[in-house]
């Protein structure tokens, strides 16, 4: 999977990510991210609504026949959202580092085309996808080289005129040394080929879990305060032009 002098460090990074996945599965109550949980509903609803608005604004909202790829889809990620938006299941593709998660999603979405990969070398040709999704993936990668290699690969498989849907957290988490935030100023360096809008979103999860079960309205009011938002959501488009017919 890896080549050259960076093979060993990248293998260690891959092993670290898988180990962290197992730790989270063992230690975090499954109810925290359950679909019925009001806090999870609030977070998902908010990011889905903003993503749809920005995609529509960029003329990049996916259609039934749009080929869509999510790298790092975890337990289903945005794949089910894309189904809800009308994308045909056979036009959904995914790459996931964790075989166990990939197998579980394949059982639920059998027509999707999934591969087990860290994303550094994707098995699809240049410009294959009209929409590529990266959601809380880069913050899970501590190795700088792997971050840039993954970003380059996402840009490679994105079609001219297609969009990258990027969602990740922008604030440090001092209680978890296995994650590293992504700041707004880092995005142009990671994705130099892409242009678009980036917005802050998502009320700090500890606050969401406290407030949303009691008052959805209050959670929405708190989320209007920029200093309480912990994530970035961007729609970054690959322009057509020289080298991108």
Structure description:
- With 245 residues, this protein is of the alpha/beta class.
- The chain has a single domain (35-237), classed as Rossmann fold, CATH 3.40.50.150.
- Helices cover 37% and strands 20% of the residues.
- It contains 8 helices and 7 strands.
- The chain has helices spanning 7-27, 38-57, 79-84, 99-108, 144-157, 187-190, 205-211, 216-223, and strands spanning 68-71, 92-96, 113-116, 129-135, 158-169, 195-203, 229-237.
- Strands 3-2-1-4-5-7-6 form a 7-stranded mixed beta sheet.
- Strand 1, helix 3 and strand 2 (92-96) form a beta-alpha-beta unit.
- Helix 2 (38-57) crosses helix 7.
- The two termini are 30 Å apart.
- The model has no long low-confidence stretch (mean pLDDT 92).
CATH homologous superfamily name? Vaccinia Virus protein VP39
Kindly estimate the percentage of residues that lie in beta strands according to DSSP: 15-25%
In terms of per-residue confidence, which ranges show pLDDT below 50 for 5 or more consecutive residues?
none
State the helical fraction: 25-40%
Bulk shape: globular
Based on CA atoms alone, the radius of gyration comes out at 17 Å
Mean pLDDT: 92
CATH second-level architecture:
3-Layer(aba) Sandwich
Question: Major sheet: size, sense and barrel closure?
Answer: 7 strands, mixed
């Amino acid at each position: 999977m890896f080549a050259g002098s960076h093979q060993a460090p990248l293998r260690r990074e891959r092993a670290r990510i898988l180990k962290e996945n197992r730790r989270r599965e063992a230690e975090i109550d499954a109810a925290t991210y359950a679909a019925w949980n009001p806090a999870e509903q609030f977070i998902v609803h908010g990011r889905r609504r903003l993503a749809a608005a920005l995609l529509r604004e960029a003329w990049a909202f996916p259609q039934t026949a749009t080929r869509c790829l999510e790298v790092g889809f975890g337990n289903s990620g945005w794949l089910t959202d894309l189904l809800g938006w009308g994308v045909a299941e056979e036009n959904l593709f995914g790459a996931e580092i964790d075989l166990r998660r990939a197998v579980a999603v394949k059982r639920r979405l059998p027509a999707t085309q999934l591969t087990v990969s860290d994303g550094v070398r994707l098995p699809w040709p240049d410009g294959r996808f009209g929409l590529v999704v990266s959601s809380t993936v880069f913050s899970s990668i501590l190795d700088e080289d792997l971050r840039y290699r993954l970003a380059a690969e996402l840009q490679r498989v994105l079609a001219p005129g297609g969009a990258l849907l990027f969602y990740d957290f922008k604030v440090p988490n001092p209680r978890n040394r296995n994650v590293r935030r992504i700041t707004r100023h880092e995005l142009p360096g990671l994705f130099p080929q892409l242009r678009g809008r980036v917005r802050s979103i998502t009320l700090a999860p500890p606050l969401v879990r406290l407030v949303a079960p009691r008052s959805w309205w209050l959670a929405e009011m708190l989320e209007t305060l920029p200093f309480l938002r912990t994530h970035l959501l961007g729609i970054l488009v690959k322009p057509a032009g020289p080298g991108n017919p």
